[in-house]
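Dear colleague,

Thank you for sharing your sequence with our group. We've completed the structure prediction you requested, and as agreed, I am returning the results in plain text so they can be pasted directly into your records. Please verify that the sequence below matches your submission; if there's any discrepancy, let me know and we will rerun it promptly.
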Amino acid sequence: MPFRFFAAMGLLAVLANLAWAATYTVAADPSSREAVVEVEIDGAPSKEFRMPAWAPGDYRIVNFGSRLSNVKFFLNGEEVQSETGADPNSWTIAAGADRVTYRVPSRTSIFTEDLRVSANEMFFNGPAVLGWFAGRQNEKHTLRVALAPAGAVAYCALDPVDSPDPKFAMYTAPDYDTLIDAPVVVGTAIRAKEFTVHGKPHYIVAFNRASNFDLDPWASAATRVIQETARIFGELPYKRYMFLFDIGGPGGGLEHASSTRMALRTNATVHSSIEFLAHEFVHTFNVKRIRPKPFAPYDYTKPAMTGALWWLEGVTDYYARIICVRAGLKGRAETLNSFGRDMFLLSQQSRRFQVSADESSRRVWEANNSAGFGIDYYLKGGLIGLMLDLAIRAETKGERSLDDVMLALYNESKDGRVGFSETRIRELCVLFGGSALGDIYDEAVLRAVEMPWQQVLPRFGLSYDRGRLQDDPFANPDAMMLAQGWPYRTP
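Please find the predicted structure tokens below.
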């Protein structure tokens, strides 16, 4: 499907005045279910072009470059020769190039659609579709998305700008990381609802099989989740936020700094799926801003190994649940029961005596999934979050909680600062909860042993028996009072 992307001299003048480092244009070809992509850079040509080997939030090597076809490089309007590099994601251009065109086929990943093209809609996740010219990643970028077929609209959390060509939606990004961290949906049957929280616009954007999906209750519930999350961190660190609901779509969810793509069943209800939404929203802080050093900055050419995925995913899941209780969207007893079921599930994983949460986090790249070594860092990480929260509250008589650790990590990591070290979570747990938290942390995170529930639960007025976690009617009054304060905010 040939097309030219800079047909108007007015567009060239606008881009020149803004001095964009790179301009990306993406259009759908429904006949082949492919995206057609062009990347053009201004200034000096580059001798290398790359695609990411992996996508943040999906901790496995995918080699997106191996999926491209019809890759062609140009310099000053003339096609130039290229050679594939040392890995499937790189091309070298001896003469240099200032433009590349290529095609990307539709494909689904574990957590999200990488790219889906149909007759009236296109969705894509940046790492699967958008590569980069070497040396230009940290300069400004612009993205142009073809509005096709007629009547199509686009949604993307990047900063929108007026497009000189009405057939394209246009967005800007300060760098490559930001560019590929904002998925795009464009089509004719998208349904959206805008709502405001703390003065900032938020959107529920439903697509795919969204014709009968009721947006109103989701906007109401999302508002309460956002408000409770903001109470922990003291702010909302974005200009706008989009919940991209892929109704009837495959996979799960994938987080981004200002949006998330979530697969929801056509009959999904707020009660059944609100913790899923909360999980992805908490990632706005924990993962996208609270990042370990291997994620700051991302290196898309090789695995970013960290022992903290139990925190980034599992503790995010813990917070998703307790935020829903704080927001009045889930019951406290119901949530205790869900943690009790998780305690039982973990007790059935015999490899908990062989693989620690830290090791499971580090080895995910070998396994290609979160439970590849018999210990699911989502499951155990959520329970570690519960244990650390209860222990800090017990040690401080309810004056401190895991919220203090989370907020400290956020303040140390936000605004593009260097990520946290592998020991920092433990240090902060001890800082806010006292020296006893050191041993509790070590047993729960670093050792392949039974988690020290008997050291924590009785002091907190809770009891566990065969999959049931509940308030202990025989606990002493102080422990009962502590228990009743969970999972709400401490003073």
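Summary note from our side: Residues 1-18 have pLDDT under 50 and may be disordered.

Kind regards,
the structure core
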